Amino acid sequence: MKGLPALIRLHTWQLDGKRRELADLERVEDGFHAEVRKLEDDMVVEQAYAKDSESGVFAYGGFAAGVIARRKRLAQSIAEIRVRIEAKREEVAEAYQELKRYEVTQANRLKREKLEQERLDQANLDEVSLMQYQRRADGKA
Predict the structure, then answer these.
(1) Do residues 73 and 32 touch, judged by C-beta distance below 8 A?
(2) Which residues contact 54 (CB under 8 A, 6 or more apart)?
(3) Percent of the chain's residues with pLDDT above 90
(4) DSSP letters of 52-116?
(5) Torsional sign, CA 119, 122, 126, 131
(6) pLDDT tens-digit profile of 30-82?
(7) CATH of the domain at 72
(8) pLDDT of 19 higher than 70
(9) Contact at 8 Å (CB) between 137 and 53?
């Protein structure tokens, strides 16, 4: 019984670590999405500048090519991080199931111990009652 609480603590600690890693990966993905939104905003600003300026028209082509390349790299990074996130989610789910298995086992053991203790307590009370009954019966006889 002493080993089970230690196993539960260990698996809880491992599960927490995996959850933190998953949260870190999700933050990275959010950062990539924020960069994509910033690129879109920059693109709108640059398009407006190119419309209003003669020199902006010539510079816009290079800017647009850079944005397209950057957007493509970000899309690849997002796809890669999503694969890693899904793998980490599976790890978290497995770790959670393992932890729950140990917790259920401990709960069942504690329940059995409690039932056994209640049975012993009831047996002791029955014995005391029987002794009191016998004393009264001996005293009346």
Answers:
(1) no
(2) none
(3) 68
(4) H-HHHHHHHHHHHHHHHHHHHHHHHHHHHHHHHHHHHHHHHHHHHHHHHHHHHHHHHHHHHHHHH
(5) positive
(6) 999 999 999 999 988 888 888 887 777 777 788 888 999 999 999 999 999 99
(7) 1.10.287
(8) yes
(9) no
Q: Which domain holds residue 73?
A: 3-140
60: amino acid identity, one letter? Y
Q: What is the largest CA-CA distance in the chain?
A: 124
Residue written as tokens 């609480």? Answer: 5
Amino acid identity, position 119: R
Say how many domains are in the chain.
1
Give the angle 72-23-10 at the CA atoms, nearest 5°.
Answer: 140
Residue linked to tokens 């003669």:
54
Question: What CA–CA distance (Å, rounded) separates 53 from 75?
Answer: 31
- Residue 114 vs residue 63, higher pLDDT: 114
